[in-house]
Amino acid sequence: MIIKARNISKIYNQNSETEFFGVRDVSLEIEKGELIAIVGPSGAGKTTLFNMLGTLDTPTFGQLKIKDKNVLSMDYNEKSKLRNEVIGFIFQQFRLIPTLSALDNALLPLLVSESGIDLPKKENVIQLFHKYGLKNQLNKYPGKLSGGEQQRVAIIRALVNEPDIILADEPTGSLDSKMSEFVFDTLQQIHEEDGKTVIYITHNMNLVKKASRIIKIEDGSVVSDETC
Amino acid sequence: MFKKVISFSLIIIFVVLLVNPVTANAAPVTEEQIEDSIVKAANYLMSLQTDRGLWQAGIRINPRETAYFMVTAKYLQIEDMENDLQTSAKWLLEHINKDGGWGFFDEGGKSDISITAIVRLALIVNGVDEGCEELKKSAVFVENNGGIKNSDIFCKTFYSLFDLYEEPWESPNSEIFFPDLSILYLDNTDEHSTYSSMAWGREAGIAMSVIKEYKKRENLHIKAQELNLAEQWMVSHQLEDGCWYTLLGTCLNMIALYEIDSVKHAPRISKGMKWINSNRDPDGYQKRFVLSVWDTSFAISALRKSNIDSSAESLLKAATWIMNAQTQGGGYNWSNVPSGGWSYNEYNILYPDNDDTALAITALNDLHFTSYSTEYKKRMAIEKGKEWLLYMQNDDGGWGTFERFNGDKDYKAPPESTEDPSVADVTGHVLTALASCGYTVDDQVVQNCIEYIKKDQNDQGAWYGRWGLCYLYGTSCILQGLSDIGYDMTDEFVVKAVDWIIAQQNNDGGWGEHFAWWSEKNGITFTKMGPSTPEQTAWAIMALMKVDSDKYMNEIEEGIKYLIENQEEYGGWEHPYYTVLGLNPYKNPYYPHYFSLAALSDYAKIKGIAINTPAENGELRTDQETNLMIDKFSYEDVAEDAISSIKKGVLNFSFEETGKNKFLLGLYNNSKDELEDVIVTVYDESNNDILVAYDFETLKGEERISKSLSFSSEKENQKNLKIVSTYTARGEKREISDSYQVTLTKERNVDISASTIIIIVIIVLLCVCLFIIFKNTNKQLIKFTFKNLGRNRSRTILTFIGIVIGISATAGSISLGQAFDQKLRKDFESFGAGRIIVLPEKVDISVSPPTQTFEKSASLRLDDDVVDELKKIENVKSVCPVINYETTVTFKGESTNCFIQFVDLDTFHQMTPLKIDKGSVLEKGDGLTANVGYDISTKAFSETIEVGDKLKIGNLEVNTKGVFKETDGLSGRIESIVTPNIVIYLPLEMVNKFVSKDYYDVIEVKVIDKNKTKATDEKINNILEDKYPNRIFSTVYTEKLQSTVSEILYQFDLIISFIGVFCLLVSGIGIMNMVIVNITERRQEIGIMMAVGAPYKTIMKTLILELTFLGIIGGIAGFVGGLLVVLITQYIAQILTVPNFAFIFSLSLFLGIAIVLFFGVIPIKKALKKEPIEALR
């Protein structure tokens, strides 16, 4: 079990009149190698859940274990390390640093990791660029890349540290259908080839269908959790 | 035919003899005779000088004094006086006149009822048999002359003591001698106060009234308070030698005190008696007073005229004695008299008089001390005396004797003998004295005086002299005084006076005027012309020589002839006549000596006869104080350590760097009282040369010594000295030898202020911190950071500009404020550290309103006394008196008015904060040479003054010996504080060539320990306030000036620092703003970094690295910007201070790094505190 969440809740605007639950008492158990789609209407709490699972946000209460480690008792740097080594993020808005080249962006997790960048790792990354058809875009800045290309750079960035979990928040939300398919194929490929746990949020029913497990969220709570 | 020839010849011879009787009559006086006479007279007069250096004639007055003594001694029942009284009685009995009484002269002449009566009393009460011939005869004389009731009031009073006369106070016209004691309550200046009567009358009067009260024995208890006042008065008026002004005063006061309480006042009475005894000749003759100041002054003047050197030892000894005899307090005169008059002898400190003061001044002005400090002391004594005389001038323009009176007092009626109006003889002497001080007929004082003189002349053309017989004396004094002061001697009234004098010449060529009778009431002596006397002849011809020696040569030569013919073989003159007046006529046996000598010498001068007085070559005073300075360089700061290590010893050492390779070694014997036989030797260790060896004992232990030493070359950086001092501590026999090793090292000055150092230290610390932070950071991260920076140019540039502007503004304003501050400081440093200036005026430079409102009476007279006081003060190194002077200076045909300071060369080099540029500093014995300030050298004239150039200062040519470097700072002068740049310095010894100024304008004091300047200043103030109460003066020193000025500039400073802080804040906020914008703008980036798992530190590092880089670059740019701000402002404000580059640079860098970090880290930290998702959102 790679992720184990028990009764995690996120309360926004706590102790004020506008207090509301972003996520309420969600319990999940995610096994290694699962391909999970999180679905639900807008504002249902998908992203909140996603952020909490990716340690980008902290549950107001509840328990969260990733790789058997209690995330809630971790300090900043432990969480950073966890994210750096175990989790790769893919965002709808790509989240590339505009002042860095595609390669530098992809290398960022390595750069900030304890081990840093060494030549073989860099070679590896360049290999990935080749693999995802970006060999000509290595030194281009994000502004010069198309959305699909940017998202692929983001995927490479998510992969460079060979994480166990890939978290993707509407990875294809900003892409046209063709590019969406390509990007999702890439994700699926990662899941299948490397056996990584991939959790993604999407509104695209086509993509939902490809998941091995579909978690449906409404009003902050899991309304259905089906394994296909 | 032969007969005819013979008879013709006889007729011719006869006719020739008849026509020209003079040739047959007298041979003219030859030059040899004159010279011989003068030499003899001078030698004789010199022989009369006492061991103490003064002249003191044995005065003969009349038998009355002897009688007073005898009566008093008897009445007071003084023990062990039998022999003395008998001797005196014997003298009196032997000196009875033929007419059966005693008179105004020792012997001969007519007798006087008062004198006869008192002598009789003296003899009778002392047990002389009344049946003896003399007393019988005198009883008849008294009876024939109206009895005791016709005698004077003192005589009657003495009779009443023995109950031989009743109620003397009821006698007519006696009120003045029995004043109501309530006058003691009156203010000195009151018209009826006891001070309105002449000194002698006042001293007698109070005692007389006390005697009266005790004789009357009425109402003693009612008058107790007044009597008590009188008692106090009498006690306090006894002089140090025991006397009350005169013999009569002494007798009366002793009796009065005896009446009050004979036991209580026994010590005073015995002291008075001691004085009386000491003034009695062995034959029993009692003297009235001794007039040593008077005699000594006249003797000095006469001897000086006889061509004895102005620095002859004997004369200087006499002058020193006179100087010491000057009264220090104002005396019991009228009121608030300044101190500085002379009285007639050294003990009489209560009654300085104009006559003695004038004579003393004239005599002192005739002499010149070789010792500078004594000469200076002398001049100060003269100055004080002169001030006194000027104060004492009566409103009618003349001078009285003891008092000054305002115009209210009307002397049209003949004055009483106790009154003190202006008199001609004193006025004449004062004019002569003022002339010797440089006064001329143009001065207002003199103008007023001439009015008086004209008014006082009698119908015949003569003036009445009160203290000499009488018209000859007064007229001579006036004519000499007028001539000395430069009055036109052809004026009508002068001619009238001269005619009168000439008309009085006797056939023997001399002049003589003699006592006829004495008006008791008016105190006027009536005289008649009679046999010639040498002194009166001398008075007449001295006056004639002053008026017109050519015109009256005949009369003068006849007088000279009379003098020479009457000179005794031993060189002096003798005659039986009384020529002096002290209310009664008296005889001063020295009068003929010194006046004749003076007259003969004047004549010799007119005739151009060179007199080679043997005494001229008498030993000159050797001057032990001269020139202790071996070299003249000054200044400080070389070996502070060395000094402190040596200070534990009894000697103080100082080292002052005096030039590039020179320094001045100073040695001070700090404990002169404890040490004996101090010998200090300084060796140069490298070659064991003795650099300086000094024996403090020969210097009377009072001085410092100094020696200029130099490094042999530029390269020599060190000099090792060995200082050995050998001394014996007082009370110990054993000799102690201390030796000190001193190493002098040249110092290289790097001008870094403390603030700069602190800032640099902070920068270094920051850099160390940064280094530690980034030590383990991989290079890629740094590369990454710079890549990032380089990519986002606009953001970087904006942040950078914000930083640069902030830093420029802050660094600029702070260093600008600092520049102003430094400039001010520098300005006042040029004034010289450790230098205190004493000014005889109030220099009020403080901004606070004056706290004291009362008026002090007069400025402090900066004289040698003050200098001596200052020298005594602890921590005072040297004291340099300065006289200011302003005159026209001509250089190569151009003239301009310049400021000149005469400086004491002993200490000048230590005082001046100046450094010599060209030539060398003035040294003693240079004569008329000058050092000129920079501005004088370069700007005063169109051509630059170089060393060796001749300047014409006033009328004298002066050689330029050195030119000073320019001093920074203020230029010009505030009252007596003058910037050295605009000064011409001349030696103080030369001052009298330019100006007759006998006091200093400024005294500069240099302290040993500069850190104690403030304490020393306070001490100076306290001591001067103490010694010279209510005198205006002020002291100024660097820190005081600085503090007062910074007080003034406080607001300016406040604004500057406010602007500095404001700039710091604004730029800080600006920088923070830029950083916040930066951080906000890159929130996403930070979020991404977080998301990809960058540790806190890593994000921090990248951001800080970025900011630091911006800060450093911004700091450097800010330095340039700040420098520009400073330079532009300075250019506009015309301030030429070199900006402190180090300070601005380090400040900029500090601001760059510190502010950027301080204001940058806050938003960074804030951003990092959030959840990553918030950064990403």
UniProtKB/TrEMBL annotation, chain A:
Task: Tell me the SMART domains matching this sequence.
Answer: AAA (SM00382)
GO cellular component, as recorded: membrane protein complex
Task: Give TM segment ranges.
Answer: none
Q: Which GO terms describe its molecular function?
A: ATP binding; ATP hydrolysis activity; transmembrane transporter activity
What are the entry keywords?
ATP-binding, Nucleotide-binding, Transport
Q: Does the keyword Transmembrane helix apply?
A: no
Q: Name the PROSITE patterns for this protein.
A: ABC_TRANSPORTER_1, ABC_TRANSPORTER_2
Which InterPro entries did the record assign?
AAA+_ATPase (IPR003593), ABC_transporter-like_ATP-bd (IPR003439), ABC_transporter-like_CS (IPR017871), MacB-like_ATP-bd (IPR017911), P-loop_NTPase (IPR027417)
Span of the secretion signal? none
**Which positions fall inside the ABC transporter domain?**
3-227
Q: Which family does it belong to?
A: Belongs to the ABC transporter superfamily.
Identification of the protein by name:
Putative ABC transport system ATP-binding protein
Automatic annotation (TrEMBL), chain B:
Task: Tell me which InterPro entries the record gives.
Answer: ABC3_permease_C, MacB_PCD, SQ_cyclase_C, SQ_cyclase_N, Squalene_cyclase, Terpenoid_cyclase/PrenylTrfase
Q: Which organism is it from?
A: Mobilisporobacter senegalensis
The residues covered by the Squalene cyclase N-terminal domain are 39-227
Q: Which residues form the signal peptide?
A: 1-26
For this record, an example GO cellular component is: lipid droplet
State the family named in the UniProt similarity comment for this chain: Belongs to the terpene cyclase/mutase family.
Coiled-coil regions listed in the entry: none
GO molecular function terms listed in the Swiss-Prot or TrEMBL record:
intramolecular transferase activity
Q: Pathway, according to UniProt? A: Secondary metabolite biosynthesis; hopanoid biosynthesis
Primary location: membrane
Q: Where in the cell is it found?
A: Cell membrane
Q: What is this protein called?
A: Squalene/oxidosqualene cyclase-like protein
